[in-house]
Amino acid sequence: MTAHAKLPNPPISDPVSDLPVVPYEKLEEIFEDIRKHPVYDHEIHGCLNCGICTATCPSAQYYDYSPREIVQLLWTENLEGIYDAMQEKIWACAQCYTCAARCPFENSPGGLVMIMREVAIKHELPSVKEVLRPFSRVLLKVVSTGNQLAPNMITKEAFPDWGPNVAKVDAPLMLLRKAIPMPTMHTLDTAWEVNLKTSVELYTIWEATGVLKQLESVDENLFDVVSDVMEEKRDEWEEWLEDNEDEDDD
Amino acid sequence: MSDKPILIVGGGPAGLSAAHAAAASGRKAVIVEKADRLGGAPILQGYAKLVPSHEWAKDAIGGMVARVQANPNVTVLTGAEVQAFDGAPGAFVATLKDGRKLEVDAAILATGFTHFDSLNKPEWGFGTYPDVVTTVQVEQMISSGAGIRCPSDGRVPDRVAILLCVGSRDRQIGREWCSKICCTVSANIAMEIRELSPKTNVYIYYMDIRTFGLLEGDYYWKSQEEAKVKYIKARIAEVTSDGNRLVVKGEDTLVKRPITIPFDMVVHAIGMDPNVDNMTLSAVFGVGLNRYGYIDKATTYAHLAETNRPGVYVCGAATGPETIDDSIAQGQAAALAALTGAGVPMLKAAE
Known about the structure:
- The structure holds two protein chains of two kinds.
- Chain A is mainly α.
- Chain A folds into two domains: 20-123, Orthogonal Bundle (Fumarate Reductase Iron-sulfur Protein, Chain B, domain 2); 132-249, no CATH class.
- Helix content of chain A is 56%, strand content 0%.
- The longest helix of chain A has 30 residues, at 220-249.
- The radius of gyration of chain A is 23 Å and the shape is globular.
- By secondary structure, chain B is α/β, with parallel strands linked by helices.
- Chain B folds into two domains: 6-112 and 275-340, FAD/NAD(P)-binding domain (3-Layer(bba) Sandwich); 118-271, FAD/NAD(P)-binding domain (3-Layer(bba) Sandwich), CATH 3.50.50.
- Chain B has eight helices and 18 strands.
- In chain B, the strands form five sheets. In chain B, strands 3-2-1-7-18 form a five-stranded parallel sheet, covered by helices on one side. A five-stranded parallel sheet of chain B has the order 9-16-10-11-12.
- Chain B starts with 5 loop residues before the first strand and ends in an 11-residue tail after the last helix.
- The chains are: A mainly alpha, B alpha/beta.
- At the A-B interface, α4 of A face β14 of B.
């Protein structure tokens, strides 16, 4: 029996890591949340370690991320490894689902990553905030308008993860845009004109599906800003409705 | 004992074996073969040396053909197909497509399989790049004496990749079975390539290796230790080309890195599909198919060859992926079942 095992509640951790030890119960709780997810059994069936998912994964070419590793960790119930992967690795997936289209046993590593992300947010893992911080502008845009990226967001500040040497961002984009022989200047804030009604419906979806709640746990400031925007747009929508009613009455 | 013949549908290893067994016991047999000659896949598809005997297919299976053709108890009808099959055990009538009618005692379905068509996995380059070939094509290169050549320009390849499980163990395309023979066949082909062309390096990409039973020593280890064939645990994601050579993309899962490697020739180890005629056979003979599309066996242990229709028996790769030697054994088992009327209820026992 090792000294480690004699401890009343043996902590499971990497002995050379300086990260705080996570109690085993916490690891179990996180895995249970993953396993009990309504689509978990649909996304994982068994794995022969053939690696076609990782071979075909665009993110695996550039990051320390392997869809095969994700499937293996879950299938073998490696609680520590799962927790570890949820710190950073799962955020490298681009959600293209090529892995799912290729897996001979119809596993969906991309779908499993989506479940793990949900659970990571639910448990407010500190890494979630760190990983998502650079994307707060994108989040704001998506949640408030439904657009992911707008022309006026093409700045280094908006995308710190692009690195310092993105040539096109240094170009005079507004000037170049004016040179395009068709109207493009009317959609700078959003990639396309966003319908007010669509925005308001989107907010209902965010609330009903718990996305807003997730946002609050990830980034409270952003949540406040988004809440303000939502309120504003809803007021606008109400006004529009009232105006139209008036017109009908006439 | 009935003097009516036993109808054997299919003239491959299983059917040839069943016909020989029936005839050897003094009964008459009729082989109805769709192709213009006997021999089944090993002859019609031009296989080279067989597993596990290393005998040439044209000698081994050709010998079985000659033995049946020389047997006066066996009638061979080639270019023939059964269109209807009526009656009851002991008094069946088989109607052929040309209108001929055969009165038979029982029927044995030895209808075999169909090779998987690699066009169903377009990401692996077959049909797009001429140097992507199947195991059957390599068998033909060897058996014809043409040697191992890239079809595009006839050069001898430096590097050959064999991809296992093409059309097997793949839920994406509804092939939820292991085709049983491809691992060993691939190891055999790899050794033959190395022997014919020592400068050619051969790499086998696998998920599992299933050189089952005694094939472990003579194929799995011999191919590695003597022929220096390399086994890499990876299922290939896609086969493309850089304009000169084929480019194979995968993950070396034991080294844990994505890999992109050039090859001169890529070989698909194609699996065994149910015979494309199985729906027709099922309707004509009134036999059930299992959920994979092969002809269903009624029992696992009692009588190996029974179908759900009394008096109609089945053997070989018609029932699922099967080796040649096991197909031959099953052919004999089916003959015995047909001779003894296994599974046929004795309605008139009192007479």
